[in-house]
């Protein structure tokens, strides 16, 4: 696979079902692909100290975060036999129940997409400097800690 330029993966607000559906539909013409796997990260309505999370406000140092997303993507292409991969992450406010992370991996074979997707999502959570401020129903907030 040829080296790709660093792309901006950030989408303002929630990643909509229509956006996800169109991304999937664009791959129907790629007839060498035999398998796709998708991860959708959704904002949970967690209860923390008796308060309910209403939304998460995502922010990032975008240049650094985009570079890290790019490095993770390129490493996956070196390790696995992939046809393509798309990563999108929300910025701004995403309400509970809405999608904040969309990772879409394609390959000629299913085993590759399962393994690659798992690895990529774990690396995103561990390495990419994206910050989430949990917004509570009482207008208070706290910075989210990834688990």
Q: Which percent bin holds the helix content?
A: 25-40%
Unreliable residue stretches: none
CATH superfamily, by name, is Molybdopterin biosynthesis MoaE subunit
According to CATH, what is the class?
Answer: Alpha Beta
Sequence of secondary-structure elements = EHEEEHEEHEE
With helices defined by DSSP (H or I, 4 residues minimum), what is the helix count?
3
Structural class: alpha+beta
Outline type: elongated
The largest pleated sheet is described as: 8 strands, mixed
Write a compact overview of the structure shown.
The chain has three helices and eight strands; from the N terminus they run E-H-E-E-E-H-E-E-H-E-E.
What does this structure look like?
With 147 residues, the chain is α+β, with helices and mostly antiparallel strands. The protein has one domain (28-143): Molybdopterin biosynthesis MoaE subunit (Aldehyde Oxidoreductase, domain 3, Alpha-Beta Complex). The chain is built from three helices and eight strands. Strands 1, 2, 3, 4, 5, 6, 7 and 8 form an eight-stranded mixed sheet that branches. Helix 2 packs antiparallel against helix 3 (110-127). The mean pLDDT is 94.
């Amino acid at each position: 696979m040829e080296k790709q330029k660093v792309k901006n993966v950030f989408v303002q607000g929630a990643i909509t079902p229509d956006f996800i559906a169109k991304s999937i539909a664009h791959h129907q013409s790629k007839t060498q692909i035999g398998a796709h796997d998708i991860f959708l990260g959704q904002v949970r309505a967690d209860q923390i100290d008796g308060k309910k999370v209403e939304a998460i406000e995502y922010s990032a140092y975008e240049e650094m975060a985009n570079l890290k997303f790019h490095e993770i993507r390129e490493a996956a292409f070196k390790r696995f036999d992939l046809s393509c991969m798309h990563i999108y992450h929300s910025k701004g406010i995403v309400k509970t129940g809405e999608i904040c992370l969309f990772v879409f991996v394609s390959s000629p074979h299913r085993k590759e997409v399962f393994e690659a997707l798992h690895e990529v999502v774990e690396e995103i959570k561990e390495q990419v400097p994206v910050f989430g401020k949990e917004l509570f129903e009482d207008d208070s907030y706290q910075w989210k800690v990834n688990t």
